[in-house]
Write a structure and sequence with these properties.
Number of domains: 1
CATH architecture: Orthogonal Bundle
Largest sheet: none
CATH topology: Arc Repressor Mutant, subunit A
Shape: elongated
Order of helices and strands: HHHHH
Radius of gyration: 17 Å
Distance between the termini: 27 Å
CATH superfamily: Winged helix-like DNA-binding domain superfamily/Winged helix DNA-binding domain
Strand content: under 5%
């Protein structure tokens, strides 16, 4: 599922396929003060890049994030897939969320992720 979402996001972002253009629904054209949400494709690509970097530092935690985020498994289900206890999976999940949050919210000029 992750691969499909990432490839779809890359395809939508490609200049050949209108990567610089943003679709605007006709209903939203006449709404004063309407601020469109960020591009979902950009968000998916940012998560993928951060997750790739995280996988080099903590492969089991990154796999847990993939199972939870892209496969929709619960903490218990992901723990059994990875062969770790539920308590360990919950601890890893908390640590991974903090790491990814910091990686995704930091400025480009502030250096690398934690």
């Amino acid at each position: 599922m992750r691969r499909i979402l990432v490839e779809n996001a890359r395809w939508r972002r490609a200049q050949k396929h209108g990567g610089g253009w943003h679709r605007v629904p006709l209903d939203d054209l006449h709404v004063p003060g309407h601020e469109p949400q960020g591009d979902l494709a950009d968000d998916i690509l940012a998560v993928d890049e951060a997750l790739e970097q995280f996988a080099t530092e903590a492969p089991v935690k990154a796999e847990l994030v993939k199972l939870r985020f892209f496969s929709g498994l619960s903490v218990g289900e992901a723990a059994s897939v990875l062969g770790i206890s539920r308590a360990t999976a919950e601890r890893y999940w908390s640590q991974a969320r903090v790491w990814l949050y910091v990686a995704l919210t930091q400025d480009d000029t502030s250096g690398s992720a934690p």
